[in-house]
Amino acid sequence: MAVLTEAPAPPAGVDFGLTEEQELLREQIRRFAEERIQPGAQERDREHRFPLEIFEEMGELGLLGMLVPEEHGGAGMDTVSYVVAMEEISRVDPAVAVTMSVTNSVCCWPINRFGSEELKRRVLPELASGGALGGFGLTEPGAGSDVGGMRSTARREGDEWVLDGEKAWITNAGHAKYYVVVARTNPEAGKRGLSAFVVPSDAPGFSVGQPEEKMGLRSSRTAQIYFSGCRVPAGNLLGQEGHGFKIALATLDHSRIGIAAQAVGIHQRALELAVQYAKDRVQFGVPIAEHQAVQFKIAQISTELAAARVLTYNAAALDHTPQAGRLSAQAKLYASEAANRACQESLQLHGGNGFHEDYEISRLYRDVRVTTIYEGTSEMQRLVIARHLLS
Questions:
Q1: What is the SS3 string spanning 135-183?
Q2: Residue 168: phi, psi to the nearest 5?
Q3: Contact 92/270 with Cβ under 8 angstroms?
Q4: 130 neighbors 59 (Cβ within 8 angstroms)
Q5: Superfamily of domain 246-390
Q6: Whole-number mean pLDDT of the chain?
Q7: What is the pLDDT of residues 170-185, one digit of tens each?
């Protein structure tokens, strides 16, 4: 008979009790979100209006440079604190949250991780203060999940890199000042022939297309960006030439945690709306909350929210470990799909009213849909998870 031995100590980060500072941060961000972002969210969505004034305030609060070290003008916070803030902003307006996510996760983060000291000193303080927003250029019209199919190019000419091509579905396009862009520098080297650059919006040869008409996140601007002999200084290269694919993968491994947090915030709000409506809506002489079918739906939404939050916080706490890529993929996969289910069930509980744009759940139902698509589809997350486990 086998003798039970003491279980090995769990890895650091599995205790999800927030620190006193993180709890205070949550309270501060929730108050700001409810007072400054939530009012007008429905109108901004209808008008497709990008709220620049809100991002100026968020910059002043340090929310656009949360992961940037203090020496470069940022808040120097950890990833769990970032997740806390993303969740609270997403709870009231996912369209505002995606701009916050892009600036923090796929612009500031790779610049801080892979940029030279000179580049970081030149760019990060402006991004962290909210004086500039960030963007990320990876996807192309013919290359989404298939990064190897990228056609945008960059060639070295003296002290400059010259970029040609186009990128699609770029969040913050037209409002961002700095874009992290991946382009092909060696046509013969496949994925090893990609490099990453920081491209300012005032670079010669850079232009922005018309805004996309989207199903959701309508107050967030999305458009194509174009490079026609676009020139940037040689010092704007991130890492080394040929390391663009690795940089893109590392960036997405990190940024998926933010999208998972966005999904958790949406999920939280969908639950709140379902509970409130179930208490208020009377049918057959009683609030619908008294019907067992409604109670079961709410119980399921709540349980899946708890699971999604644990996965997301765990990925954030362990984002520095060798398992970070798998953990972020698992968090993003589950949280995004659970949030979609939560919004669907919450809208179903609202009945015909949920189909009307005057009801908040209608906006959340549209906004949440893209969370299973951007930063890598659910199908790609499953591939990432499997490859980590089987490699």
A1: EEECCECCECCCHHHCCCEEEEECCEEEEEEEEEEEECCCCEEEEEEEE
A2: -115, 155
A3: no
A4: yes
A5: Butyryl-CoA Dehydrogenase, subunit A, domain 3 (1.20.140.10)
A6: 94
A7: 999 999 999 999 999 9
The yes-or-no answer on residue 375 being catalytic is: yes
Give residue 5's pLDDT: 35
**Model-level pTM?**
0.94
Residue-wise over 76-97: b if at least 16 C-beta within 10 A, else e? bbbbbbbbbbbbbbbbbbbbbb
- The SS3 of residue 19 is coil
> Which residue among the candidates 23, 213, 375, 379 is catalytic per the annotation?
375
Measure the CA–CA gap between 151 and 241, rounded to whole angstroms.
16
Above 60 in pLDDT, residue 3? Answer: no
CATH topology of domain 20-132: Butyryl-Coa Dehydrogenase, subunit A; domain 1 (1.10.540)
CA-angle at 251, arms to 105 and 304, nearest 5°: 70
When pLDDT is averaged across residues 29-36 and rounded to a whole number, the result is 98
Fold annotation for 136-240? Butyryl-CoA Dehydrogenase, subunit A; domain 2 (2.40.110)
For 156-209, the pLDDT digits (tens) are: 999 999 999 999 999 999 999 999 999 999 999 889 999 999 999 999 999 999
